[in-house]
Design a protein that fits this description.
single chain, about 500 residues, alpha+beta, f41 fragment of flagellin, N-terminal domain, 5-stranded antiparallel sheet, 8 helices
Length: about 500
């Protein structure tokens, strides 16, 4: 059939040429941009998936930056603490040197005190000046804020706590087992010794966690005098004594399973009586079981102390003496209870954490699971130490633990406590850097690689396949153009019919 008005072959050629041109343009666009998906119509589902993956990549990249920034912050804080640690070691040396009373002149002690005063001032200056971008790090800025400290809590330390925005966290301690001293009762059936002979001696050895001491007493010695003699060596043995009626109660100076009292009778000298253990429920009460007579004692009789048993916010606590602590992902706290608190089986509303801490977001999502709240306490001299021994600022000139005329033994205990606190804080920050930040950066790096690979597989151009498609499209466009030219010339054949 030969028609002029409608050239069907030309229309067909135009359609095919347009289709081939479109394919060619698509290949050129993908090869020039390197992306398989340049707009939604290229692959609607793929676009949604790739955009979600790109969002995850951005969040992961920011989290890596957050972790690296956290590492830098902690580096600066640890640097300040390292210098404070060195200064405390120097104070320790000066305190020990000043204890050599007979070998030092007053002038030398005063010179040592001047050095200690200078060191204390330097520690306070470091605590006040160590900062990151103007934010102080060691002056308590990143310590936790608390309220409602229970009367049965002697001391506490909050190392980490995760808090939802605007919410507080109550910390409750349930005492399930009382803390106990090591405790023994020495009974002679009277208020004093009654030996078999006037020249006989009652000889026994008392031992505790620090050491041991042998004592010898003659007939007629009162229990009160015996207890007084034992207490003279408490710093040597770690055992104290109290006389009551016909008994002397021997107790370890501290609470806990690491503490003990041991009594060995070397020569009873005909003394009636014996040794009894304390009640399992009350260390100051006698055990209902019969005791061991002096004549029957061949080996030391020993009683160990007992750690407090407790749960903190439903988590079984690690305990030592009167101290209970937990370390979980959401809460890392330590409590030292008073004697009454550690010995009463009861629930304690210990504290309420109302805020504070150094908060770092170390994950791609902004939520409590990806956040870490780290407590960095104030390391000024008025805060380093304990309520039991005192605080570091008490070593200053004119105060109770100065090295010129103060209590040097207490001064050394204070310095030991301060060194322990600073070292523990440094160790905790180091563990945070090594384990939390280090592991986070490594895991986020792997997640970023895998997410990038997934996003690339969906969105990026496969150049091998696309160059093949480009070559095919080029050939088809050329072929379609040639065919269209032939189709457009066909109507001219009608002129041959018109003669």
């Amino acid at each position: 059939m030969s028609r002029i008005n409608t050239n069907v072959q030309s229309l067909l050629g135009q359609r095919v040429l347009g289709h081939n041109n479109k394919g060619l343009n698509t290949s050129l666009e993908r090869l020039s941009t390197g992306l398989r998906i340049n707009r939604g119509k290229d692959d609607p589902a793929g676009l949604i998936a790739s955009e979600n993956l790109r969002s995850e990549k951005a969040a992961i990249s920011a989290a890596i930056g957050n972790a690296e920034r956290a590492d830098q912050v902690v580096n600066i804080a640890e640097g300040g603490l390292q210098e404070i640690n060195s200064l405390l070691v120097e104070v320790q040396s000066l305190v020990s040197q000043s204890a050599n009373d007979a070998g030092l002149s007053t002038e030398e002690k005063e010179a040592n005190q001047l050095q200690i005063d200078s060191i204390l001032q330097t520690i306070d200056r470091i605590a006040a000046s160590t900062s990151f971008q103007g934010t102080k790090l060691l002056n308590g800025t990143f310590d936790f804020n608390v309220s409602g400290v229970a009367a049965t809590v002697e001391d506490y330390q909050i190392n980490a706590a995760k808090l939802k925005f605007g919410q507080n966290r109550d910390v409750d301690v349930l005492v399930t087992q009382s803390a106990q001293h090591g405790s023994l009762f020495l009974s002679v059936g009277a208020a004093g010794l009654d030996l078999s002979a006037a020249d006989a001696t009652f000889v026994f050895e008392v031992a505790g966690t620090i050491g041991s001491r042998e004592f010898s007493f003659g007939s007629g010695t009162t229990l009160a005098d015996i207890a007084s003699s034992i207490n003279t060596f408490t710093d040597v043995t770690g055992v104290s004594a109290v006389a009551s009626g016909n008994y002397i109660e021997l107790k370890s100076t501290e609470y806990g399973s690491r503490e003990f009292v041991s009594l060995q009778v070397n020569d009873a000298a005909g003394q009636a009586g014996g040794v009894k253990l304390a009640s399992a429920l009350d260390e100051d009460a006698l055990n209902s079981a019969a005791g061991t007579a002096f004549s029957a004692i061949s080996n030391p009789i020993r009683d160990d102390g007992q750690d407090v048993g407790a749960t903190i916010n439903g988590v079984v606590a690690t305990t030592n003496g009167k101290t209970a602590s937990i370390n979980t992902d959401f809460l890392d706290v330590e409590f030292k209870l008073t004697d009454a608190g550690a010995q009463s089986l009861a629930a304690i509303n210990a504290i309420t954490i109302t805020g504070g801490g150094a908060q770092f977001n170390l994950g791609p999502n902004v939520d409590i699971l990806n956040q870490v709240n780290l407590g960095i306490s104030n390391v000024a001299t008025r805060n380093l130490g304990t309520t039991t021994n005192g605080f570091l600022d008490e070593l200053a000139a004119g105060k109770t633990s100065n090295v010129v005329d103060g209590d040097i033994g207490t001064a050394q205990n204070i310095v030991n406590d301060a060194i322990k606190q600073v070292s523990t804080l440094r160790g905790r920050l180091g563990a945070f850097q090594k384990n939390t930040i280090g592991a986070t950066i490594r895991s986020l790096g792997v997640a970023f690689e895998n997410t990038s690979a997934a996003e690339s597989a969906i969105r990026d151009t496969d150049f091998a396949a696309e160059t093949a498609a480009l070559t095919r499209s080029q050939i088809l466009v050329q072929s379609s153009t040639q065919i269209l030219s032939i189709a457009n010339s066909q109507p001219q054949n009608v002129l041959g019919l018109l003669g």
